[in-house]
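Holo model, copper (II) ion. Inputs:
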Amino acid sequence: MMRAPLFAAVLGLAACAQVAAPVDAVSVAARVADMIGVATTVIATEAEADAVRERVRAALVRPLTAETAVQVAVLNNRTLQAEFLAAAEEFAAMEAAVALVAATRRAYFEAVAAQQVAGYLEQALASAEATAELTRRLAQAGGANRLDQVRAAELYVEVANDLRRGRREATLAREALTRALGLWGADAAYALPATLPALPAALSVPAGAEAEAIRRRVDLAAARHAVEHEGAAAAHRLEALAIDVRSEVRAAYATLQSSYEIARAYRDEVVPLRRAIDDEIVYRYNGMLVDVFTVLSTVRASLAANVAAIEALRDFHLAEAEFRAALIGGGVVRSGATVVPHAEEQAGGH
Amino acid sequence: MDTKKRDEPAPVSRRDLLAGGVLIGAAAVSGHVQAQAIPEAPHMAHPTMQPPLFPTSGPDYRPVVTLNGWTLPFRRNGEWKEFHLVAEPVVREMAPGMRAHLWGYNGQSPGPTIEAVEGDKVRIFVTNKLPEHTTIHWHGMRLPNGMDGVGGLTQPQIRPGKTFVYEFELRRSGTFMYHPHADEMVQMAMGMMGAFIVHPRDPAFQRADRDYVFLLASYDIEPGAAVPRVSEMTDFNLWTFNSRVFPGIDHLVARKGERVRIRVGNLTMTNHPIHLHGHEFAVTGTDGGWVPPERRWPEVTADVPVGAMRAVEFEATEEGDWALHCHKSHHTMNAMGHGLANFIGVPKRDLEPKIQRLVPDYMAMGNAGMADMGEMEMLLPDNTLPMMSGQGQYGPLEMGGMFTVLKVREGMAANDYRDPGWYRHPPGTVAYEWTGGAPTPPRAEGPAGQDAAVEVQVVRRQHMSGNH
Ligand SMILES: [Cu+2]
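Output:
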């Protein structure tokens, strides 16, 4: 089979003869690239594999952006390559491409957010650690009883477990992204940015989004194609799908809009208010109106609010990915999943 | 401790502008005539102590000086002395940096001191500018029952916007006060009170060279807020002389050798042992009358019960700066937390960088006591005074609340009430550090020592705040 040489290379087996890609696969890849607006190519020879590897490595030099991640995935994801080479008809390749783009975006935002959240959980652990240590010393000096001490010790373990869970989330989310990107070995050590992209200044109302979706959706194109071959039943299926697509666009935009408002409320209100609460508590600590334990527990509450703010921003980016998918295809709504999926749910879904 | 003030523009009220300066006496009062037959209601815009109001006719007397307060000018109308009190919301500066939103009379809380002479007939107009009805009870006075000011019992309430007239003859001299007897809990918790001094008709009787008066009031104002919580019963955080707290309370001054009287009335809900350093005094009067000389005994602390007044007198024979304060140590503090862990003996400095990564402005405090508070400069909640503050010539005083200073000096002018500054101690009369060698005395192992940990964990049953 044509795929054998490549797999042999990947698995470290002896390389076989160089075989050029079939003309069909090249033209499918070209049409896919044109449709999704992201460059791709067919990898059939070692030379082509080397060229793609070079492009991928160049893209991985800097911390990944969402667009770079999509570019790398579309070039390098081998499941998509399989579709190019194996597709009996090009619709399957198209659907695989839009699904990969959407899944990569989701995985990217999940991974960056999970890594950012883990950073906050580390700070929460530092706070719980200081509380436990101060209580231990206080008890040693006779200023705290065993109840306070065991409470502080228990809290520390709980927060440490939160951090362990957070780090696991970050690892799993990153692995989901790594799979979408088709990376392994040293390439899998790519850098992610420390923070999610900022919320845009405004959310534009998409004019003619439904019409655009009707024009561009890959699944609709496939359904139209089926009508030519199958007749009346397929025509009904096409109409049903078109109605669903229009609804999906509206639903995805509603989700995007509310996610935007929620993330903006976190950024512009919750986070500044939590900062003001922290300040006020420090003023009260300065005035000996509260003690250091109140300061530390307040800081932990603020860290939790910051985590919620990151998750809200992540949800906005996920909603935006879903909205884009509603226009072209590859969204999770089609499979009946939740609109905003989490890392585990989409792992291996392409 | 100096507190940086944040975002606190000095409010200038319409009243400040109208009053236009410090009141010097009747001639300088502002206010407007309510009606043809009603005397002016003078208004005070400042919490600074006003000079005494000397009598210009009638029997001579030594006027009182009200700490951070003033005496209400009166109008003579035939055989009557006419006063006009206006019950109204006021903003009282409790000390620089903190303004309380209270109710009071004629611009301040407490209201102005009323002074008259035994046998005088007084007519007191009371105008109610509060949002609810009020009355005034003349605490300790012998008067017609219908002038006693108990709403519902002896008179109808004074509705908002109305003016009532009280008329009575001052049948005995002494130390009295006035306060509402209508929604009394709320109105007294909001600061409505004033002193009422009746001087003896015989100027020689109970003569003093300096005569000070102040009322004790307690408030519960949440740090960062301005209005007292009126339902509080025990846990007050501002213990005041005339609705002022240290370091905002006027100093008392006396020339060496003068006879000084201090009159104190208690409108809080607990007793206050008022203690004077450096002198013995006698309680010479209560709101029940003068104590006959043969019935007096020496004291250095006079416990002032709830709803009572005490006049104490002494010869100011000892030069210096002498503390005058309530002896309940929590009453010489400003707002403070009551649920704080005691970190004495607990090293915290090494954890400071760790906590500062989370809370950049955090500073470790309290591992040796709370005196750090008197020395550090840091941000507090808005409109909140440090728990302890004030600077003397030798360093921080670490006080608040019911604390002030009696300054006795040689050669002060008779009616000079200005602050003479800190006392210049004669050489060799100030406690000094011993710099010679000394044997190390044997000491028991301190409870804060690491070795004592097991023992103290067994014996301690200490309540801690539940916030950690
Ligand atoms: Cu007291």
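The radius of gyration of chain B is 24 Å. Chain B touches chain A through 51 residues (CB under 8 Å).
Archived with the compound record.
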